[in-house]
Design goal:
alpha/beta; 11 helices; 11 strands; 46% helix; 18% strand
Length: 344
Amino acid sequence: MRENYGPNGLWLHRQIYFFVALFILLILLFSLAAESFGQEKFPNRPITIVAPFPPGGVADLTARPVAASMEKVLKNPVVVVNKTGAAGAVGMSFVANAKPDGYTLLMALSSISIIPEADKLFDRKPAYTMDQLMPVALISADPTIFVVNADRPWKNVKEFVEDAKKRPGQISYSSSGVYGTLHMAMEMFSHAAGINLKHVPYAGAGPALTAILGGHVDTLASGPAVVIPHIKAGKLRPLAGWGEKRVASLPDVPTFKELGYDIEFYIWAGLFAPRGTPAPVMQKVRESVKQAVNTPEFKSAMEKLETPIAYLDAPEFQKFWQKDAKMLADAIKRVGKVEIPEAK
């Protein structure tokens, strides 16, 4: 049975449909406006930059001036938290699995690419995978410096290698942890020189530096920013650098390539976010980092650390990261399994 609305009833029926449609449209517009408003308000609470190594290492020393400068740019608190352990895997895994909202970022080193490859080598469940993280910006890329305790007898690499060949496994070096950045640099040198050194891993670059300064180990590979103050103080002696060119602040220190060793290795520091961070938020973070690294305060802080800024925005950093990760994966395969327990 068909309803007969009549002229007035049909008009009323159309009016009801009109107001229902208008109500639905208003709800949709309100939702879109609320979403847009939420995006515009980022950030509205503190941002955390996780440094996956203890205070005193390259990640920590880079994260702090970045955070201070970002805070001024964003007019919002940006704090650095050290989440340490497992050669950086604890902190990196924490960020990889964090909520992708832009409020948890990672200041990572080259070891971000090493750890997943080491897990594959040992058939372990990976702490995280590289595709769980998105590059934000490369901050710095320093060639590693090979130093020895100033009380040790070696004055150059030639003397060091000759002694190491006479005493296999007796000359020691500290590192930030098994398969960490500093371990890989020394393993590459050991392989190229045909020597066997004793690896003493620590839970971060800070403790590794303390070990060589205290005379508990003989040698160390490290970023220039960490060791230069101690070189100037006469506590450490630099013998060579892993860079393509000599470090400007250490003009008398030759590169390994100059000495006939075909090795090149950089300790870089870069900012990452969890995969899935919304594009507008990522864009805001990227823009804030770009502005931060150009502030006089940040430039001054990096000059004091004697670390050159090597800023690359996300697309260029992605290419850099892929190339570096492949080089490190090849190195790990050459090194193979290294069963050394972590130092306490």
